[in-house]
């Protein structure tokens, strides 16, 4: 027996309510708690820290350095370098934490907050060649 118009309206309302409620429920239940995953050190990072070669091989481990060269006229101050280069890098956990090589993790420094100027070393070198 076909439903009358008056009987069909409640069925549409019930179906709509069912879909709305189930959509809301699934979206709330499906949300994962936002937890920050601890990033582990890579095999290469641990190798650089602990040493890649056995002691009997007598091989010197690599050292990673960064050098920035400026002309005398365009050289920024150490404070400018600290603010424009070092401070943004310290936003990254790997740059502001100390590696714990045995556990393949990084941990905060036991010396408190790292200040950008503490990581700047300034060295002036005058060559024996005259500039052109």
Structure description:
The protein is mainly alpha-helical. It has four helices and two strands; from the N terminus they run ααααββ. The chain has a two-stranded antiparallel sheet with strand order 1-2. The longest helix is centred in the N-terminal third of the chain and has 26 residues, at 5-30. The chain starts with a helix and ends in a 24-residue tail after the last strand.
Short key terms for the protein model shown above:
single chain, 132 residues, mainly alpha, two-stranded antiparallel ribbon, 2 strands
Describe what is shown at a glance.
With 132 residues, the chain is mainly alpha-helical. The chain is 38% helix and 6% strand.
CA radius of gyration is: 30 Å
Number of strands: 2
> Could you name the ranges where pLDDT drops below 50 across 5 or more consecutive residues?
none
What's the helix count? Answer: 4
The helix-strand sequence is HHHHEE
Strand content: 5-15%
Helix proportion of residues, in percent? 25-40%
Shape: elongated
Strand ordering within the main sheet: 1-2
Structural class from helices and strands?
A: mainly alpha
Average predicted local confidence, pLDDT: 76
């Amino acid at each position: 027996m076909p439903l009358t118009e008056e009987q069909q309206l409640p069925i549409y309302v019930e179906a709509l309510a069912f879909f709305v409620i189930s959509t809301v429920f699934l979206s709330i239940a499906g949300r994962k708690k936002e937890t920050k995953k601890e990033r582990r050190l890579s095999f290469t990072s641990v190798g650089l820290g602990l040493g890649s070669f056995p002691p009997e091989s007598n091989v010197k481990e690599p050292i990673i350095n960064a050098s920035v060269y400026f002309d005398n006229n365009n050289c920024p101050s150490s404070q400018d370098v600290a603010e424009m280069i070092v401070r943004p890098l310290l936003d990254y956990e790997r740059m502001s934490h100390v590696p714990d090589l045995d556990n393949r993790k990084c941990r905060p420094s036991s010396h408190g907050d790292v200040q950008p100027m503490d990581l700047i070393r300034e060295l002036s070198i005058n060559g024996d060649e005259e500039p052109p």
